[in-house]
Structure formats: structure tokens, C-alpha cells
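Q: Given only this backbone (311 positions), what sequence would you predict?
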């Protein structure tokens, strides 16, 4: 299982117990979204002091795939700005984890706004629930998607929404936009698989990490009060983009999971049949979008049986 390509995980793990000085390290993965990033940083700025008012939290900005580091506003809160001109979210995220000093590692995407008290709620979640090694935070749309892009187009948005209600429950996996880990768990299982994620194969890095945590015996909890709001970008409301991403997810799945050829072929046949039935029965847009996504994922897995995806 690949983690940090340069071996930084081993170095970080060996010195981890001597370096904890903060409660929370917030790692923000960013690529060419300066306006959205500014909104997220503004929402986090008032939250950097802990309950006692003492500095107990840090921000590490993990920027990749741009020629030079983005210029930040003078009002930007204190942070450590890491930059890699090469594309690769997981690579720069792993570098940031290696430099983080908190015993809770929070990972956020740049197209979010954190609710007031978000970091307090992350800290409370891990304090009150020692049974969980990782957190799947709540993610709601910042605006009504149907009102923003229209009801028909909204089915193609594919926003990373996570809303399992108002109770803390155990869940199968984290979601990359809003997730957190005990640093001790990452010491055990390793860092993110750098073959996956944006800038590499495209997706599934959080799915692979969740599976690795489960295999190591760790549990993942949903934290309803650790809330962020996700931008509703009209450019995402596009059927071709929706299906392309689903197909990419299927190819990524073949990189970190094991699937027999006959099973992949059977999944494609079943998915194609489901789409045909949905169309014959005049299924609504949401149902049809679900079935088309299922077929696109299956087709991506079929792609993954052939090079270069198996290299």
C-alpha cells in the first residue's frame, strides 16, 4: 500500500509522540480556488484559539498543481503554506500530515465554509467518543441546489453531501471534504494512497483509507455537529461531467480493490439492464441519474481491467 512516496510517514511516525503540542491540526487541500479558499479561511479564523483562549490549533495549507503559491489576503489567519507545483492532492496532504503537530488531524477541501464552532465540535467529538479513531463530519449544501441550478440539472451535481441526522452513529467510511483522524491511528495505518485522489487517478482516496482503518480494527463515527457548508457550483450540474467522474471512480476502485473479471463483466451487464429498464418504465430524472452512474462506475471498473490502470 503506497503512502508518502518519500518515506515521510516513517519519519513522522517515529517522532510523533515527542511532537504533540497542539490539539488540532487543520489541513486544507487546495488547487486554484482562491476565492473559495478565502471564505473557508475567514470562517476558521475565529476558531483557532481553544476553549481556554490559548493557541491549541494550527492550519496547514496544502496547495498543489499551481506554478507558484497563491497570494493570500493580509487578513488570512496564521498558517503554514505548503506548495507543490506537481498535481497530486494526496501527495501534498501527506506532506502536511508529516508536518502537523496536533493529535487530531482535520482534513478539509477548499470549497467549504465551516460553521461557527466547527473546531470545538471536532474536539468534543473525539473527547466524548474514544471508541472512534476517525470522524465523518456533516456536509450540507450552502444553497438549495434546485434553486441554484434548477431541479432537472440538480440531479447531475454530485455534491459530497453527508447528512445522517442529528445523532452520533458509527459509519463505514469518511468523506474527503470533511474528515478527521486521531494522529495515532494514522501512525498505525499509514498515510493516503498517492495513486488516488485529484491530480492522480482522481478519486477514492478516502474510501481506501476507510477500508485500511477498518482492517486495522479502528472505528469511524459520524459527527453531526462538526458541520461545514459546501459550495453549489453550477458548472458541476452537467451530465457529461457526472458520468465521467463516475467512470473515473470505477477505474480508481480497481486500483485499490480486488475484483474478478467475471464479476466486473456481470456488474456491467446488470447495470446496463437496469438503465434500460429505467428508461422503458419512464423513471424520473433522479432515479435515471442513479442508474446511469451505476453503469458508468461499472464501465470504469471494466476499463480498469486493462492497462495502464492495472500498472
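A: Predicted residues:
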Amino acid at each position: 500500500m503506497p503512502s508518502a512516496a518519500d518515506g515521510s510517514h516513517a519519519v513522522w511516525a517515529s517522532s510523533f509522540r515527542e511532537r504533540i503540542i497542539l490539539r488540532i491540526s487543520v489541513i486544507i487541500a487546495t488547487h486554484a480556488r482562491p476565492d473559495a479558499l478565502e471564505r473557508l479561511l475567514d470562517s476558521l479564523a475565529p476558531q483557532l484559539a481553544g476553549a481556554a483562549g490559548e493557541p491549541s490549533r494550527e492550519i496547514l495549507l496544502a496547495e498543489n498543481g499551481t506554478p507558484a503559491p497563491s497570494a493570500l489576503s493580509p487578513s488570512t489567519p496564521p498558517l503554514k503554506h505548503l506548495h507543490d507545483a506537481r498535481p497530486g492532492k494526496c501527495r501534498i496532504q501527506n506532506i502536511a500530515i508529516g508536518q502537523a503537530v496536533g493529535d487530531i488531524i482535520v482534513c478539509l477541501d477548499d470549497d467549504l465554509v465551516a460553521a461557527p464552532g466547527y473546531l470545538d465540535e471536532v474536539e468534543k467529538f473525539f473527547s466524548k467518543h474514544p471508541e472512534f479513531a476517525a470522524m465523518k463530519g456533516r456536509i450540507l449544501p450552502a444553497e438549495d441546489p434546485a434553486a441554484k441550478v434548477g431541479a432537472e440539472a440538480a440531479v447531475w451535481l454530485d455534491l459530497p453531501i453527508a447528512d445522517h441526522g442529528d445523532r452520533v452513529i458509527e459509519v463505514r467510511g469518511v468523506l474527503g471534504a470533511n474528515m478527521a483522524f486521531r494522529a495515532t491511528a494514522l501512525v498505525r495505518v499509514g498515510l493516503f494512497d498517492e495513486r488516488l485522489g485529484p491530480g492522480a487517478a482522481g478519486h477514492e482516496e478516502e474510501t481506501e483509507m476507510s477500508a485500511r482503518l477498518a482492517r486495522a480494527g479502528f472505528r469511524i463515527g459520524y459527527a453531526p455537529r462538526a458541520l461545514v457548508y459546501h459550495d453549489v457550483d453550477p458548472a458541476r450540474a452537467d451530465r457529461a461531467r457526472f458520468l465521467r467522474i463516475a467512470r473515473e471512480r470505477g477505474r480508481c476502485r480497481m486500483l485499490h480493490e480486488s475484483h474478478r473479471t467475471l464479476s466486473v463483466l456481470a456488474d456491467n451487464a446488470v447495470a446496463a439492464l437496469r438503465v434500460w429498464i429505467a428508461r422503458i418504465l419512464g423513471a424520473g430524472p433522479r432515479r435515471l441519474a442513479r442508474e446511469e452512474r451505476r453503469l458508468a462506475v461499472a464501465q470504469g471498473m471494466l476499463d480498469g481491467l486493462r492497462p495502464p490502470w492495472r500498472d
